[in-house]
Amino acid sequence: MTFKASVLTLYPEMFPGALGLSLAGRALEAGTWSLEAIQIRDFATDKHRTVDDTPAGGGAGMVMRADVLARAIDHASSPGDARPRLLMSPRGKPLTQARVRELAVGPGAVILCGRFEGVDQRLIEARGLEEVSIGDFILSGGEPAALVLLDAVVRLLPGVMGNAVSGEEESFENGLLEHPHYTRPQEFEGRAIPEVLTSGNHARIAKWRRSESERLTGERRPDLLTAPPGLPRK
């Protein structure tokens, strides 16, 4: 099954962007996943191709219109389409590795990239959009966030990463940050590779890596150590 991504945007030229390179790009060429960038303005009905209007109740900025976006979404997602409909939004639920894995085993996603002050709430409710945030900061639009989400998902598709085991040991996969990594040369500017990693004792190495993951998580992301039950751990 090919993972199909449909991105609704005012700037389709931003895609595939970095997703056309490296692992994601090779997977795109191989047909492991597909990407269509849909111009939202094509679904406006006036000669100026207007997609926004002033906010009800007054205030600064503009709001993306429900009617225009509904036509775009209905075009991208026909009846029976099982793909989740995502809205990249700073007020959305934070994106997690667990959600990324859920998306990666699904048929794809329809992703709406917001602009201006936001999207008419009626559209979110009427089309069942799942609001997703990639962090507690504001971007000029949802396109960079959509690229981040798709990069995280595509790398988990079957055959995209050369070594599937490497993905299982990364940060957030077991509820912890990833342990430090080392490679040649044996010594760099007076700093040597930790002896345990060159010992050949796989049990000691595994124990050291786990210990380092726990140490780093405690120092940098203690919130992960108190995550609610259900967070995957090893």
From TrEMBL:
Catalytic activity from the UniProt record: guanosine(37) in tRNA + S-adenosyl-L-methionine = N(1)-methylguanosine(37) in tRNA + S-adenosyl-L-homocysteine + H(+)
Localization recorded for this chain is: Cytoplasm
Please indicate if the UniProt record lists Electron transport as a keyword.
Answer: no
Q: Which residues bind S-adenosyl-L-methionine?
A: 114, 134-139
Name the Gene Ontology molecular function terms of this record. tRNA (guanine(37)-N1)-methyltransferase activity
Q: Does the keyword Cytoplasm apply?
A: yes
Q: Taking every annotated instance into account, which residue ranges of this chain make up the domain tRNA methyltransferase TRMD/TRM10-type?
A: 4-226
Q: List the Gene3D superfamilies.
A: 3.40.1280.10, tRNA(m1g37)methyltransferase, domain 2 (1.10.1270.20)
Composition bias (Basic and acidic residues) maps to 209-223
- Reported EC number(s) for this entry are 2.1.1.228
GO terms (BP aspect)? tRNA N1-guanine methylation
Task: Say which family it is in.
Answer: Belongs to the RNA methyltransferase TrmD family.
Q: What does this protein do?
A: Specifically methylates guanosine-37 in various tRNAs.
List the HAMAP family. TrmD
Quaternary arrangement and interactors, per the entry? Homodimer.
Q: What is this protein called?
A: tRNA (guanine-N(1)-)-methyltransferase
Tell me what organism the protein belongs to: Mesorhizobium intechi
- The encoding gene: trmD
